[in-house]
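Notes from the pairing session

We agreed to fold both candidates in a single pass and log them together. This is the raw record for the first candidate, unedited. Please don't reformat it; downstream parsing expects exactly this layout.

Candidate A
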Amino acid sequence: MLTAVAAFGEPPARAASVNYVVGTQTIGPAYRFTQQTALVETAQATLDLGSDILKIKLSRDYGKRDYPGVVANPAIHSLRDLARDEPSFRRVLDMPFHHYLLWTYSFSAGWWEHGFSPKDSEAEYREIYDFTRYLLTTYNASGKKFLLGHWEGDWYLHPGYDPKRDPDSRAVQGMIDWLNTRQRAIEDAKRDTKHKNVEVWQYTEVNLVQKAMQGGHTLTNDVLPKTTVDYVSYSSYDSLQGEGPTLRTNLQKALNYIETKLPPKSGLAGKRVFIGEYGFPAQGVGAEMQAARSRDVIQAGLEWGCPYILYWEMYNNEVKDGQQVGFWLIDDKGQKQPVYHLMHDFLDRAKTYTINFKKTHKRLPNDGEFQRQALRFL
């Protein structure tokens, strides 16, 4: 089979700007197999999978808690410092990924659950502004796209992570102010920084969409319509019941609903809602069903037009009673699971299609052309 390296003379992520949509993430991995830090090892495993997408976390907890082997440095005081000065983070940001989704939490600002104070707003603005300028400058002309976001926002709003308890009005307004402050910082940094062929955007992540669809107080209903965010990520576990057509229908209904609450934005074409998390624990469903249901999610997301469909995750992060729960592509024994092979084969076929399309049409397929064809890869 012709590879992307053979066709273009360089690694696929550097050779093409096609978004292959399907990917994974690495946050808090519970094991590793090399002397590399967990961050570098799992990023390399993602490259080996064939993915052009890397999703990681940047925060004060960047050391052992998030990525075993990464040593905290007292000289790092900001997101820019972390990306620039911590060797593992700098290395993975320099890797040949085109798409980076970054859980981004500032070092300098306080939280917003009781309202976002002017002092914290200014600190947040300055740190996100500086980080955005760093990304635009350092990766100028690289073809890289960075989306700055966060983990499941509905849990931040709901006291005790209890979906039956409604968010406090101060938390709702605090989150609106937080997201809009970050958006303003990103847009101001892009305005103030000369750059080309590199992008920085913001996303918020929702996770209680079934509650939202029933009229409940949630991020989707109460926060999202009052923001200026670029994209929305859906951590989609509350819509993953059943399998086959039932699962696909439930998931697409939720995506449609989120889209109705997302304010329009000029300069961004195509769908702006994506599946930021989905997964099925091997401990509960077994390896074969894990792959089968993942296929259903990928199919649903491609049919709908999601720009990203991200599996949780490369290495499992959850351990209960000493047992791996099994949210993995590669298990704790180093064995690649059926869901790994599903994604690897999909990405391999996607790259071969891209090569052949370019030979025939003298250009790369656009997102719509790719996604229509990609459904055949499943």
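Candidate B (folded immediately after A)
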Amino acid sequence: MIISRTPYRISFFGGGTDYPDWYLKNGGKVLSTTFDKYCYISLRNLPQFFSHKYRIVYSQIESINSYDEINHPSVREILRYFDLPNGLEIHHDGDLPARSGLGSSSSFTVGLLNAIYAFQGLRISNYELACLAINMEQNIIKEPVGSQDQIAAAYGGFNKINFQKDGDFSVNRQIYDQNRISDLNKNLMLFFSGQSRYSSDVSSKKIENIKEGKNIGYLSEIESMVDESISILGNKNKPLNSFGELLNEAWKCKKQFTGAVSNSLIDSIYKRAIEAGALGGKLLGAGGGGFIIFYVETHNQNKVKEMLRDLMHVPFKFDNKGSDIVLYQPEGFE
């Protein structure tokens, strides 16, 4: 049996510039981190005495005999890509709900790819893993997704990711004073809005705006905030609260880029948090629902929790490790 553990991510600034329709013309950059909530994929040989060849367990259970019968698009296309000769059983477990803005779909894809490589006794670099996941989601499954989530899941850590016009990317690990990064972590609060959504609906609208050149000035402004936020974190003489205020500006830009990002529920949550003392925040992922993060000084956090008592608060810690094999126990059946 093989078990992979792949982190979820929080994207702070630059989201939207990781769509190929944008960065192949303009370049792009994002600042993101992974944190201590994970997607687990277990993979084992399925004994031949079962009547089915594949058993896929996630929010559904699929027991089928060919790739074409698999409903889960990532599982279907990844198994087709590798074309392994024997039957397989695949289980997915996640610490947080899917379709919630934390890059969970890409964490699943990265984790399954990593598990299958380990299952074959092979190792794959972070770069190769990210590239394969991007190709799988964008070109094979043809999902309207960006490229940051796959990279964050594969590499892990607090990173500036640069996207180049030639389609390549680079990952620059951000090294800060530990006390400062610890203070940042303490001042961030993560809440679940209670709404899950399919990001493809919002992503498609964003991609349409990029192709039509609509509201793209806001996207350029969001991109410029990446370096501004790095400057704040890297300079101990700059107040850390500026990071929270910049999140507020990024959220305003994100909403202006496409109205599909927010809705009345999200606007209400955001307004209540600001009234209780949050300096800024943003809805994570493409938009429309899922998790929302706020920058709140520690002395105001109880006020924010009370104001948002109808929502689930999820404490977290930054995590520097990307997709990893946490159990490697080869087995087989004749």
